[in-house]
Amino acid sequence: MVVKRAVKNNQVVAGGGAIEMELSAYLRTHARTIPGKIQLIISAFAKALEIIPRQICDNAGLDSTDVLNRLRQRHASGQKWAGVDVDSDTGVRDNMEAFVWEPSLVKLNAIASAAEAACLILSVDETVRNPQSEQVRQSSSQ
């Protein structure tokens, strides 16, 4: 399915957590301009995006905290394709130049699906209640 989408849509982004770190950096910068609780929501979403490169580091046996700090520095300096390098000890490289690519359509769908799932979980209309506690509430209110 991924190959089929890559052939149909010829746009790619750098893999290895590069696009997630760039989106996270952009959202963190944007969140600083917004007052109130929405700032916290945007910052939390930015932090959640960093789970992908962190998991790549953990799976490769790299120090995820160190690699994420390097990635944040590179993205802050304008290197938007900097991602996790599992082949070296530094842990960071330009993944676009290293031919670590992912179809952009796949990334768009993955991020949209994850955000939609999170919103669905947060928007639960009914809560599960214990029938015994409901009886206690009814008898105490009478």
Explain what the structure shows.
The protein is mainly alpha-helical. It is built from 7 helices and 4 strands, in the order αβααααβββαα. The protein has helices at 2-8, 18-31, 37-49, 51-60, 64-76, 104-122, 131-141, and strands spanning 12-14, 82-84, 92-94, 101-103. The protein is elongated and about 70 Å long. The chain starts with a helix and ends with a helix.
- The portion of residues forming beta strands comes to 5-15%
Subunit organisation of the chains: single chain
Structural class: mainly alpha
Integer average pLDDT:
87
Shape: elongated
Q: Compute the number of strand runs.
A: 4
Separate helix tally: 7
What is the rounded distance between the termini? 61 Å
Helix content: 55-70%
Gyration radius from CA atoms, angstroms: 21 Å
Layout of secondary structure:
Blueprint: H1 2-8, E1 12-14, H2 18-31, H3 37-49, H4 51-60, H5 64-76, E2 82-84, E3 92-94, E4 101-103, H6 104-122, H7 131-141
Antiparallel strand pairs: 1-4, 2-3
Helix pairs in contact: 2-3, 2-5, 4-5
In short:
By secondary structure, this protein is mainly α. It contains seven helices and four strands. Helix content is 61%, strand content 8%.
